[in-house]
Amino acid sequence: MKNNNKSRREFLLTCSKALPAAAGLVFMPYATGQLLLKAQESEGYDPTQHNYAMGVDIHKCIGCGRCADACKKENLVPEEPYYFRTWVERYRINLEGEAIVDSPNGGIDGFPEPAGSEEEILRSFFVPKLCNHCANPPCVQVCPVGATFTSRDGVVLVDETYCVGCRYCVQACPYGARYIHPEKQVADKCTFCYHRIVKGLLPACVEVCPTQARVFGEVGLRSSPLRRFLRFNDVTVMKGSLNTKPKVYYAGADGEVR
Amino acid sequence: MKKMKLPQQIVSLAILFAVLLAGLITARMFLIPKSFGKYGHYRADAVDEIKTQEINYAGAIICEECHEDIAEQKEKSNHRNVACEACHGPTAAHVEAPDEFIPTAPRGRGYCPLCHGYDPSRPTGFPQIIAELHNPGKACMTCHEPHNPLLPHTPEECSACHREISSTKRISPHESLECTSCHTVPEQHLTSPRFALAQKPQSREFCGDCHAKSAKSPKEIPRIDLHAHYERYLCWDCHYPHHPEAR
């Protein structure tokens, strides 16, 4: 009996030593692959030289919805009024200071006067919304397969071929910025028009904004329009208390905006 | 000391574990994409795949190459910051093959009001109109050139000097009233305004011409009882005449 006991302990001991070794073995291809691929880096675009962010000036937004429209057309987002990568919300603050928020078809067809609403409105304004490309993104944390990630230039992206469509990220996003693509059955969201910005074009929404309510640029470049925007405005971020560290900065957003 | 021999069950277990481990490692080699983990817990190749997405909006600069005249005109106009593609839609295909893909132009009366239709949520000061009252029935382009929309200001127009009042009136219930229906304006006011001031309405009866119960004005104009309705005040003590509100 004594003998048996000892060997069991021995076995457990070996196991406790072997496990890290086994784990190392499992992750080895990972490490070597990393080295191999590093050598293959090509193209003129160097993502490590960029860190993108967006500014939104609520005082300038006229709620024309051209951004939401252009986004759909650029990224072939399904036309149905439930799928948006960016959309415009109308905030109407009543006399009690409560916000009444709506976004009919994301603002693409304009904002008709809400029917039968006799409530007195103190003031009203538009707030364009999109993925905040958080520096601390909850959606990335919950992804079980590593299909959503922060790229080296600071953009939160979805790997379409790797996503299993489990919807965790849709649930985890505090901004409602993600949806499940009805045909592809994978998570979809704003990419800051990644395919455009790496070629030096602006995101489609910024391109068509008629009043420069949207500003796009680099966090790290003093001469970037974004830095200018951040210098001259008091900016806030959406739901800052959640510590998601959003990278879409809002000017003119007061307490009711969230 | 007696040589220690591992019991059979331990050996079998060890073999089983070894096989499982080997299986796991090989499976991992096949299942985990090559570029996974290159820069983090994701497939690095995905970034390159996303980069290849097709571009639909060509961007404002390229249009200038072929439409120099229009671009130049727009550059000097109030629409200088409105991108061509905000009105003409995505035109990357047109840039590639200008004759095959012809972009559409929003010629209807419905499009411009997406930006210019009166909406109380819009920032004050943004030029707005009430589409139903602003020259109804005519396409916007019959008066406004879309690439240079501001009409030339001639001094006969009150708006040339009284911009704010005319913009306010334009989005008010009094939009359809000419300035001159309430103000008598001497010719000289248009050239030397301070020497010849325009007349302003003086009495409650003036507004009563349209709004009193007995007035012979169109039926849809809201009526008040001229004597009972806050008799001791002038109408414009309460209603701004260029934007009267009934609440």
Name its key features.
heterodimer, A: 258 residues, alpha+beta, Alpha-Beta Plaits, four-stranded mixed β-sheet, three-stranded antiparallel β-sheet, 7 helices, 29% helix, 19% strand, disordered N terminus, B: 247 residues, mainly alpha, 32% helix
Number-wise, the strands of chain A total 11
SSE arrangement of chain A, N to C: HEHEEEHEEHEEHHEHEE
**CATH topology value of chain A:** Alpha-Beta Plaits
The proportion of strand residues of chain B reads under 5%
Q: Largest contact between protein chains?
A: A-B, 63 and 54 residues
**Radius of gyration of chain B over all CA atoms, rounded:** 36 Å
How many H/I helices of chain B? Answer: 10
Average residue-wise pLDDT of chain A: 85
* Estimated share of beta-strand residues of chain A: 15-25%
- 3D shape of chain A: globular
CATH C-level category of chain A: Alpha Beta
Oligomerization state of this entry?
heterodimer
Measure the end-to-end span of chain B.
106 Å
- Report mean pLDDT of chain B, rounded to a whole number: 90
Going by helix content, strand content and strand pairing, the class of chain A is: alpha+beta
Strand order of the main beta sheet of chain A, please?
Answer: 9-1-11-10
Give the ordered list of helices and strands of chain B.
Answer: HHHHHHHHHH
- Beginning-to-end CA distance, first to last residue of chain A: 67 Å
